[in-house]
């Protein structure tokens, strides 16, 4: 095959940290590659940024035409530690030359065990913990549910309004939004129930009132005796970066403990320094029984985990958990390097500092422009919700127009939310302050221009 790009461009922090557009987007080389995508790749696999990436690092993504875009998405909260982080690159290079696979279920290796040890140590709570590794967030969620069912002997699972847990059959059932995630893909897995969330901007409830509302529904419509697990994102990701009111998560977790229900925190998007803590559960003072992680765990290599109470994790019989690739050695080597960087570079503090810049600029924008109804989030996971100022109704058209205008100016922003009216900011923690500020000025002028 002829590579589309003659000279390879190396990524990582050595890439010039600047926004620079040398063509309109997509440029001719990207367009060629995107034409091949249209012909060769199933249309169900969409894309938001009309470029073909060739390198990334620090706070930029470079495309096949040499355009350098400011990255405020981190490939959906994955390259939190920085794209092509030098320590991750070195660890993977060392590992790939030694061995690429044995299957952990055939011949175990130390790298997997070291990742499990790190997760057991870093996740909230000082109780005895164990972990199991998988390939994707959805797979981790599926396995957390399997473990909870086996441990409790119960079947029902509660998920919440606006939840996103993945695209496999069980996780589609757990996910709230029909388009694009579920529509036409049923039938869905059974014994999944939906409870109301705490959404302070829209429901005005205190955390304890919102928890009481959810618990009442659970008790009346399911019954604690039938319930294996309550599954929740501490801060919702795809659902719109909804931060629950204080007291909501502890209220649910306490009720779960009193009723023998497994409390599962899905930290696939919030995990690993993103929210200013290593895990978002810490921000709300909850210690989950099980926690699912993926996205930020390995600097971009595919890896996911379930970590939690050793007694629950050991409930599944030998051979009941696993998979051919789960805990692949390259992904584990990357995770060990990424985790070392999260800790030694104090990246939770970096996330808080970036969050201050984001929050300050977005709140100033919101104060001057009533089309921004809410600015919320924690650390480097901040969102703006766009509304019709007269009615407060979600404004998806404005949101996508702002996002499009940002892209055209070389700033990658992602939208989210059940109503598609939220722009979320997930910069890599390796971004420069000035580059982030420049990106936010582009957002401000995009908003002013639409
Ligand atoms: C992305 C995401 C998932 C699914 O992860 P995949 O790796 O895409 O399968 C599950 N839960 C949450 C909260 C997510 O953000």
Number of helices: 14
Number of domains: 2
What is the C-level CATH assignment of the largest domain?
A: Alpha Beta
Structural class: alpha/beta
Bound molecules: pyridoxal-5'-phosphate
As an assembly, this protein is: single chain
- By CATH, the topology of the largest domain is Aspartate Aminotransferase, domain 2
Q: Quote the beta fraction.
A: 15-25%
- What is the CATH superfamily label of the largest domain? Type I PLP-dependent aspartate aminotransferase-like (Major domain)
The major pleated sheet works out as: 7 strands, mixed
Strand order of the largest sheet: 4-10-9-8-7-5-6
CA radius of gyration: 22 Å
Distance linking N and C termini: 43 Å
Which keywords apply here?
450 residues; alpha/beta; Aspartate Aminotransferase, domain 1; Aspartate Aminotransferase, domain 2; 2 domains; seven-stranded mixed sheet; four-stranded mixed sheet; 14 helices; binds pyridoxal-5'-phosphate
What does this structure look like?
By secondary structure, the chain is an alpha/beta fold. The chain has two domains: 12-84 and 347-449, Aspartate Aminotransferase, domain 1, CATH 3.90.1150.10; 87-344, Aspartate Aminotransferase, domain 2 (3-Layer(aba) Sandwich). It contains 14 helices and 15 strands. The protein has helices spanning 28-40, 74-77, 86-98, 110-122, 137-152, 169-174, 200-203, 207-221, 248-258, 310-313, 329-344, 347-368, 396-408, 433-449; strands at 53-57, 60-63, 68-71, 129-134, 156-160, 192-195, 227-232, 262-266, 290-293, 304-309, 372-378, 381-386, 411-412, 414-416, 422-425. A seven-stranded mixed β-sheet has the order 4-10-9-8-7-5-6, with helices on both faces. Strand 7, helix 9 (248-258) and strand 8 (262-266) form a beta-alpha-beta unit. Helix 4 runs parallel beside helix 11 (329-344). The chain is globular. The relative contact order is 0.16. The chain binds pyridoxal-5'-phosphate. The site of pyridoxal-5'-phosphate has 15 residues, from helix 5.
């Amino acid at each position: 095959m002829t590579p589309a790009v003659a000279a390879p461009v190396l990524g990582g922090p050595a890439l010039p940290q600047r926004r620079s557009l040398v063509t309109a987007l997509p440029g001719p080389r990207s367009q060629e590659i995107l034409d091949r995508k249209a012909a060769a790749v199933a249309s169900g696999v969409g894309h938001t940024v009309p470029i073909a990436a060739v390198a990334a690092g620090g706070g930029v993504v470079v495309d096949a035409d040499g355009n350098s875009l400011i990255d405020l998405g981190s490939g959906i909260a994955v390259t939190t530690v920085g794209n092509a982080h030098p320590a991750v690159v070195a660890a993977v290079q060392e590992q790939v030359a030694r061995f690429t696979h044995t299957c952990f279920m055939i011949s175990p290796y130390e790298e997997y065990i070291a990742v499990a040890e790190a997760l057991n140590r870093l996740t909230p709570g000082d109780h005895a913990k164990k972990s199991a590794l998988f390939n994707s967030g959805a797979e981790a969620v599926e396995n957390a549910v399997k473990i909870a069912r086996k441990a409790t002997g119960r079947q029902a699972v509660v998920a919440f309004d606006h939840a996103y847990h993945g695209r496999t059959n069980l996780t589609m059932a757990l996910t709230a939004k029909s388009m694009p995630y579920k529509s036409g893909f049923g039938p869905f897995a059974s014994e999944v129930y939906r409870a109301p969330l705490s959404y302070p901007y829209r429901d005005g409830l205190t955390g304890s009132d919102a928890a009481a509302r959810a618990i009442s529904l659970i008790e009346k419509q399911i019954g604690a005796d039938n319930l294996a697990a309550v599954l929740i994102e501490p801060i919702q990701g795809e659902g719109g970066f909804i931060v629950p009111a204080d007291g909501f998560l502890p209220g649910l977790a306490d009720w779960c403990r009193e009723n023998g229900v497994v409390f599962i925190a899905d930290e696939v998007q919030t995990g690993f320094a993103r929210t200013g803590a290593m895990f978002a559960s810490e921000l709300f003072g909850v210690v989950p029984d099980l926690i699912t992680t993926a996205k930020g765990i390995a600097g971009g290599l595919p890896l996911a985990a379930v970590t939690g109470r050793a007694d629950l994790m050991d409930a599944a019989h030998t051979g009941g958990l696993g998979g051919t690739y789960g805990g692949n050695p390259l992904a584990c080597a990357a995770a060990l390097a990424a985790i070392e960087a999260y800790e030694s570079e104090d990246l939770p503090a970096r996330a808080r500092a970036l969050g201050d810049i984001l929050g300050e600029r977005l709140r100033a924008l919101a104060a001057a422009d009533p089309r921004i109804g809410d600015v919320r989030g924690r650390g480097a996971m901040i969102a703006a919700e766009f509304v019709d100022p007269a009615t407060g109704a979600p404004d998806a058209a404005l949101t996508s127009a702002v996002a499009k205008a940002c892209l055209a100016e070389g700033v990658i922003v992602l939208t989210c939310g059940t109503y598609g009216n939220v722009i979320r900011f997930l910069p890599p923690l390796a971004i420069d302050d000035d580059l982030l500020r420049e990106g936010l000025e582009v957002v401000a002028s995009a908003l002013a221009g639409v």
